[in-house]
Amino acid sequence: MHTLDGTDARILLALVRDPRQTVVALAQQLGLSRNTVQARMAALEKHHAFLPFDHRISPAALGYPLTAFISVHARQQQLEALAISLAAIPEVLEVHGLSGRADLLVRVASTGAEDLFRVNGKILACDGVKRTETSLAMNELVPFRLTPLLERRLRD
């Protein structure tokens, strides 16, 4: 695992503030050479520091305003095949393997309650699913962020 240094953190913080900046603009802003910024960006990309662009698109803007988290209790021997089946459901945004009571936490987007019922049925129909528990996201209190971690890296 690649560990970020202060220069990497400065580049990433600048991109958080303005993700559309060019390499030249980043270099000027940070007082670095264009080649340094370009090499650092390539290394960050190689080490998977950047998430896919679609992570930044709101499901609500696509007509899916309701977000829910579905806890899935699964047969352990079928987790790999189950992950493939879940990935085939368009409304499934992400799936995390868990320790604890549930085996998987599935984040889904839906157009409303009836659509969520349909999506949950698709998940229940996947081989390996024993049962599900659904929780509606009522409000996003702390959105996904990494800025505090990047700022901490600068102080370390």
Your description of this structure?
With 156 residues, this protein is an alpha+beta fold. The protein contains six helices and four strands. Strands 2-3-1-4 form a four-stranded antiparallel sheet. Strand 2 (92-97) and strand 3 form a beta hairpin. Helix 2 (23-30) crosses helix 3 (34-46). The longest helix has 13 residues, at 34-46.
Keywords, separated by commas or semicolons:
alpha+beta; four-stranded antiparallel β-sheet; 6 helices; 156 residues
* SSE sequence, one letter per element: HHHEHEEHEH
Spatial separation of the terminal alpha carbons? 18 Å
* Percentage of residues assigned to helices: 40-55%
Question: Which class do the helix and strand fractions yield?
Answer: alpha+beta
Number of strands: 4
Outline type: elongated
Strand arrangement, largest sheet? 2-3-1-4
Average pLDDT over all residues: 93
Biggest sheet character: 4 strands, antiparallel
What is the C-alpha radius of gyration, as a whole number of Å?
20 Å
Strand content: 15-25%
Number of helical elements: 6
The residue ranges in which pLDDT falls below 50 over 5 or more consecutive positions are none
Q: TL;DR of this structure?
A:
The protein has helices at residues 6-17, 23-30, 34-46, 79-87, 113-124, 147-155, and strands at residues 66-74, 92-97, 104-110, 129-136. With 156 residues, it is of the alpha+beta class. A hairpin with a 6-residue loop joins strand 2 and strand 3 (104-110).
